[in-house]
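#lab-general

N.A. 3:47 PM
ok so I finally got the sequence cleaned up, no stray characters, all 197 residues accounted for. can someone with queue access submit it? mine expired

B.Y. 3:52 PM
send it over

N.A. 3:53 PM
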Amino acid sequence: MSNNIIAQDYSICRQKRNQKNGHRSFVIWFTGLSGSGKSTIANRVEEELFKTGIQTYTLDGDNIRFGISKGLGFDEESRYENLRRIAEIAKLFTDAGLVTIGAFVSPLQKDRDLVKDIVGTENFVEVFVDTSLQECERRDVKGLYKKARAGEIKHFTGIDAPYEKPANPDVLIETEKESIETAIQKVLTFVKHKLEL
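B.Y. 4:20 PM
back already:
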């Protein structure tokens, strides 16, 4: 890092923004295989929070790759850099007073630990959307598994790249056993106390 960079403090801080908004800010991080239902559940959770006056913003894997991470590949090093960038953005949004929702495959534990370290453990809620590979392939919402099986996509999580399940997620959602409504309520119930000032 350059010796010429100095952190600048401003008079309007996170605590003041939280007070003005009437709630604490933190990150809700959804992880799971492609097609697991992460984005669907994240979207619905944001809708419910927004309806109650919570200031929110959702960061989504595909949307990030259209801009901030445009040009990055899907090999392990590129995924790491992609998530590092996202974590830094989530940290800024948390400082801005928002409940920031992230929906990312984020397949490796070390990468999720990186995100947690950057945003702060106390600001990080991990939601594991646990859906079997077979079910994700059956859904194949974006047609990506078919392409991966045909060799058209390399380093695809679950096919030729690993997914390491979180050992102790804050919220576990098993989409093959519970409804979307149940999943949403599980997340909302968990974060309720974190919203309180």
